[in-house]
Amino acid sequence: MTVDPACRDGDAVPPPGPGRVTGWSQWSQRRGLERRLHDGAALRVSALALRLGLVRCRLPEDDVELHAAVDGMQDELHAVLQELRGIAAALYPPLLDEAGLGPALREEADRRGVGVTLDVPDNRFGATAEGAAYFAVAASLAARPAGRITVAAHRDGADLLLRVHGVPRAHAAHFREGAEPLGGSVGVGGGDPVTITARFPCG
Q1: How far apart (Å, rounded) are the C-alpha atoms in residues 72 and 163?
Q2: Beta 185-189 vs 159-167: how paired, if at all?
Q3: Which end of the chain is more exposed for a tag (fewer CB within 10 A), N or C?
Q4: What is this structure's pTM?
Q5: Cα distances (angstroms) measured from residue 156 to each of 7, 16, 50
Q6: The domain containing residue 130 runs over which residues?
Q7: Could you tell me the strand order of the sheet in which 149-156 lies?
Q8: CATH number, residue 5
Q9: Is 9 exposed, middle or buried (0-12, 13-18, 19+ CB in 10 A)?
Q10: Could you say which DSSP state residue 143 is in?
Q11: What is the rounded distance in angstroms from the CA atom of residue 159 to the CA atom of residue 7?
């Protein structure tokens, strides 16, 4: 998997311009929060559940009530761990960070049960552009539009160029919210459903 030189990781120096700095900061902060939850709180809860399991092994075998109480606490900790992972994924999906836009969109489409044709290369576009593009498409998938959606992406100069076909015209707002704060643009063509073309400058 390659990384385009002009589209380095979103943790790099933000691009010039107040609007783009604001957009870059949004995705940088979301990604940072995801890492803190995943590498901090979630790991501590997981370690605590393991320690509680070790404590359970030392309990008297005939103390049924105490065993049940420890089992209940372990179940609660596992539930908290799943909630933390869910919150972290909502902030910035781990697969998007690890594997890029294409795999993350495939996972989201499968989770939503929405028919999607994806044409997204393996090369990376930077965390900022990928985050903005991912959440714009994910918002459309969450609405479960009728028919099959086509999503195509490639690098065009210093931008991630994204084309989405088969969504309602109103969904263009999702893409404007993601692209315009970064200094990008959104065009809408066709009837309804429409084809949305969005440019996301690589961070």
Answers
A1: 49
A2: unpaired
A3: N
A4: 0.69
A5: 11, 19, 48
A6: 1-203
A7: 116-119, 149-156, 159-167, 194-201, 185-189
A8: 3.30.565.10
A9: middle
A10: T
A11: 8
